[in-house]
Design brief:
Helices cover about 85% and strands about 0% of the residues. It has about 70 residues and is mostly helical. The chain has one domain.
């Protein structure tokens, strides 16, 4: 998925959906770290993509939190 499409999809989600997605990504990263330790080569690319997605999601959640306090 393109970065712009991913960001638009995340912006359309509710706060609860964002938290659920963050939880899913964290679990996925946990599993990918095991695959990486076992030496699966394709896990590196997926790990990097998942980590970036989680960072985008957390940034969006933080922006919403700051807007709510203003």
């Amino acid at each position: 998925m393109k970065r712009r499409e991913e960001i638009d999809k995340l912006r359309d989600m509710s706060d609860e959906e964002l938290q659920d997605e963050a939880k899913r990504l964290k679990e996925s990263l946990f599993r990918l770290n095991f695959k990486l330790a076992l030496g699966e080569v394709d896990a590196v690319k997926t790990l990097r993509r998942e980590r970036r997605s989680l960072a985008r999601l957390q940034t969006l959640m933080r922006e919403r939190q700051q807007q709510a306090t203003q």
